[in-house]
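Hey, sorry to bother you again with one of my protein questions. A protein chain has come my way and I'm curious about its shape. It would help a lot if you went through both lines with me. I owe you a coffee for this, so here goes:
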Amino acid sequence: MSSKDETLQALKIAFSYMPKAIEVTKYEYGDNYQHVLDHITTVREVLLDNDIDPDGVYGEVNPDDSPNSCY
């Protein structure tokens, strides 16, 4: 695995533990809430720039903990 691949994998793992933007409120995070939202946006943008779907990262990192979709 290349250094870039390892870095992206680490970013995916970290992102899977970040709160969802909708969960970040002033009530929960105080005056720091906008800073947290900015961090989430930054990580999402880096993932997207590397052709990684941020919404699919959790399932990729934690396949045993993700629901399977059935149609």
